[in-house]
Amino acid sequence: MTKTALVTGITGQDGYYLSHLLLNQGYRVVGLVSPHRQPNLAKLGNLATQVEIYNVDLRDPLALLNAVEQLRPQEIYNLAAPSFVPDSWKDPLGTLDLITGTATRLLDAVRQVGLSTRFYQASSSEMFGDVLSSPQDEETTFRPKNPYAAAKLHAHWTMVHHRQRYGLFACSGILYNHESPLRPPQFVTRKVSLAAASIKLGLAETLEMGNLDAKRDWGFAGDYVRAMWLMLQANEPEEYVIGTGKLRSVKELVSIAFDSVGLNWENHIVINTNLLRQDEHFQLVANPSKAKKNLGWEPEVSFEALLEKMVQTDIERLQNGSISQATEGKLLVD
Ligand code: NAP
User: Fold this and answer.
1) What span, in angstroms and rounded, lies between the C-alpha atoms of 161 and 149?
2) pLDDT tens digit string along 201-234?
3) pTM for the complete prediction?
4) Which is the closest atom of ligand 1 to the Cα of 14?
5) Atom of ligand 1 nearest to the CA of 178
6) Environment class of residue 12 by beta-carbon count within 10 Å: exposed (0-12), middle (13-18) or buried (19+)?
7) Catalytic annotation present for 176
8) Is residue 108 domain-shared with residue 203, that is, in the same domain?
9) Are residues 145 and 28 in the same domain?
10) Same domain, 42 and 77
11) What residues make up the domain containing 158?
């Protein structure tokens, strides 16, 4: 029997890689997309003809109930979120409503329809926030530091409550930063890959950066969506911390990305203290041993291979005109 998977946030980075994985596994993939975001369906690229799109306002509980009733999915992946953390300070309530509200409405729909649908909630390492110990695992205390993280934590607990009270097969992955050529340019990895590509092609000279000592646990999105899928194939619904377990600094990120195209980063980086982030974390690093033990999950793509792929893809895009430095590279300085 063909399995049906519903995906919110299908037009995002993870939505793309997850849909690709599910289609390869023979799933029918249906993206739940709000009517006002239809223009962004263009981001699906070559997947547009392979997935189905169901128009539904994620803020409308009845519409979501109807969607679950009609589509009768075996699996739901709830990925939709305004995912750029600094933006959550500009609209804390909107962030809360989309992240927590959508999770709650979908879980309630699954409960009301009474199917044995398996549910994945996209949780985030940001929920650990102001950490007291490193690395973090599934037992680490949550100390969120921004509205995005607080909303994710609320959604996370709502998922746990639905599992405990109603017996739903509901899981969440507490995912650390994961990147790909599909990352939007406001994220630091893509900002750097785009700059390295632009400078290599002679379209820019320098790149403004904030704190080069900031550190992250960065992995490849394709590896992380495999973890989501594995969680829903497990015997028991549980939480999993998903990351590489390795902290890398922004300086290493810049150095590896520039080096991959034969550039010396020190000749091109300009420090701009206005770009320093107030809610920066330095010790957010995963202990993914539970995922390795229970799911057999391990990251397969190295940091170096990831960055090389991102820079090369940006070079190709700039050369073939699918992006322009003027539109994508607003953060670059000539
Ligand atoms: P992304 O590329 O930013 O994609 C976000 C998706 O959510 C897009 O499909 C976007 O639609 C949709 N969305 C945003 N605001 C919306 C709104 N107001 N109404 C309806 N849809 C909205 O994010 P991602 O990197 O794929 O991440 C997927 C999920 O994992 C997110 O929940 C994110 O918070 C979480 N997460 C990501 C990371 C990471 O490092 N990538 C780490 C931990 C957790 P449009 O295309 O229309 O904008």
Assistant:
1) 18
2) 999 999 999 999 999 999 999 999 999 999 999 9
3) 0.95
4) 26
5) 40
6) buried
7) yes
8) no
9) yes
10) yes
11) 4-175
